[in-house]
Design goal:
By secondary structure, the chain is α+β, with helices and mostly antiparallel strands. The chain contains 13 helices and twelve strands. It has helices at 12-21, 35-45, 65-75, 82-93, 99-104, 118-122, 137-152, 188-191, 223-235, 241-244, 256-264, 269-279, 284-287, and strands spanning 52-56, 61-64, 110-116, 175-177, 200-206, 210-213, 250-254, 281-283, 302-304, 312-316, 323-327, 340-343. A hairpin with a 4-residue loop joins strand 1 and strand 2 (61-64). The two termini are 29 Å apart.
């Protein structure tokens, strides 16, 4: 496979303007992907630059390690971030992720990256207060690298092939670690089949997070049920795709206080998912009062957001307090918005050029 061509500019300032003019950025300044910088990032990815991870839709560009490394450099990644970027790229290239359709829809969907295991620590990924906000290099850079790959390799440019009508800030980057230290449950990736002690990234196409206000009262015997009902209400809105289309997946971020309460009441991740799915129901009559339905509801029909508790990804993140967060989803594409979990390779090595 041919190597990528090299652009030329008189200096880095001119190079930055050239990349902006070519539509190769996300609108923000980028680190110039010089040959030396890209070569070092390829080295951190521990694969030959011309090897391809697959074709990235909707333009079906070959996602070679060299091209992915260039996007990681532009995003501001360090060498430590490289294995997570590679695993995230593998996740969205999995056919179950429906990347081509996701990049082309009018819905405001973006990859949400949830990192588990030691990789979250040694990359510096934040899992607590403000984890999806500004201020954390790893969170910002790793998610941004994936977006720049979706733009420059996949061709997902706003208004051309990325047809999201409005978009949201998570389309720049939406990446965090699960707060395993403060979680009363096993790490998310273990519940999804990864061995204990491993590192993994789970990626799901998601809307922007919606805050769920819950005032915890441990002395109230009904509090647990009301918490589950609150989570369910965040998804069981007649105007969400989770109701209008159904059959897809979604994500729920529990803050540590809410997770601790539910665990104290005997809940597991599975029982929380079951409780939310059981309650995430909209009456057909209420659905018919909105303009979002795709078919007339039948008399007495109840419309469920989720077909199976496995369709709700639950993880612990954020600061303690009033708010957890729901991530609604698109629920479309051939695989209906499936999440994909990929193990992060942390034991690869290579020979450093120039060393004896």
């Amino acid at each position: 496979m041919n190597r990528s061509p090299v652009l030329e500019a008189v200096n880095e300032e001119a190079a930055l303007e050239q990349l902006h003019e070519m539509g190769c950025t996300d609108g923000l300044p980028v680190v110039i992907p010089t040959p030396d910088r890209v070569a070092r990032m390829v080295l951190a990815m521990v694969h030959a630059p011309e090897i391809s991870l697959g074709q990235m839709g909707p333009n079906f560009g070959e996602c070679t390690f060299e091209r992915l490394a260039a996007c990681a450099v532009m995003a501001g990644c360090t060498a430590d971030h490289a294995p997570v970027v590679v695993a995230a790229a593998q996740a969205i290239l999995d056919p179950r992720f429906d990347l081509t359709e996701m990049q082309s829809t009018t819905y405001a969907t973006a990859p949400l990256l949830i990192v588990n295991g030691p990789a979250g620590t040694w990359t510096g990924l934040e899992s607590g207060y403000g984890a999806l906000g500004p201020g954390f290099r790893a969170n910002a850079s790793i998610g941004r690298a994936l977006r720049l790959a979706m733009i420059n390799i996949g061709g997902g440019r706003a208004g051309q092939s990325d047809m999201a009508l409005l978009g949201h800030a998570g389309k720049f980057t939406m990446c965090l670690a699960e707060d395993e230290e403060n979680s009363p449950f096993p790490p998310l990736h273990q519940d999804r089949g990864c061995p204990a002690g491993s590192s993994a990234v789970t990626v799901i196409g998601a809307d922007a997070p919606s805050s769920i206000m819950i005032n915890v009262d441990a002395d109230d015997p009904t509090c647990g049920d009301r918490v589950l009902a609150s989570f369910a209400a965040a998804f069981a809105n007649p105007i969400t795709n989770n109701v209008a289309l159904g059959g897809g997946q979604a994500a729920l971020a529990l803050n540590p206080d809410h997770a601790a309460l539910l665990a104290h009441l005997g809940h597991t991740r599975r029982s929380i998912a079951e409780g939310v799915c059981e309650r995430a129901v909209v009456a057909g009559a209420d659905f018919a009062q909105t303009a979002g339905w795709m078919r007339p509801p039948r008399d007495g029909e109840e419309i469920r957001c989720f077909g199976d508790p496995d369709d709700l990804l639950i993880f612990v993140a954020g600061g303690g307090g009033l708010y957890s967060a729901a991530f609604a989803s698109w629920c479309a594409g051939p695989h209906r918005n499936q999440a994909v979990t990929v193990t992060i390779e942390t034991d690869l090595s290579c020979e450093v050029p120039g060393m004896p």
